[in-house]
Amino acid sequence: MNQPRLEHHTKRMWISVLLAIAYGSLLLYLHAFTGSNTLDGIIGVMLGLYIGSHPAAHLLDLLYLPHGARQDLLSSQSGIWWLALNMLMLLVGLITITIGANRFVQPASALSVSLEFIPILVTPK
Length: 125
Description:
The protein is mainly alpha-helical. The protein has one domain. The protein has helices at about 10-30, 35-65, 65-75, 75-105, 110-115. Helix 1 (about 10-30) packs antiparallel against helix 2 (about 35-65) and helix 1 runs parallel beside helix 4. It is elongated, with a radius of gyration of 20 Å. The N and C termini lie far apart (about 75 Å).
């Protein structure tokens, strides 16, 4: 029986990292990019789940490989780098989920306080 080869999609993984960095930067500098903490949180959690899903699937595939095939894959330097990249991607996904989930517990007043620093957006009272 032929075992399917584990695909190494490093471009897709690095694009996912860039998406996570873009999401985190937008929240850091704009404090909200949709205007709603709930929607920002939903986007962050869904993005984090997507980012973490591919490496999790690869690690499950690695778990169910026959011992000889797993040993061959992990004995090469490229296999070790692939495993390290998968672990990094799981960490990036977890961080993105945490940032997104944090948006759910932030009070609505945190958004209005952050907008006071921009004089154009604040109307005089």
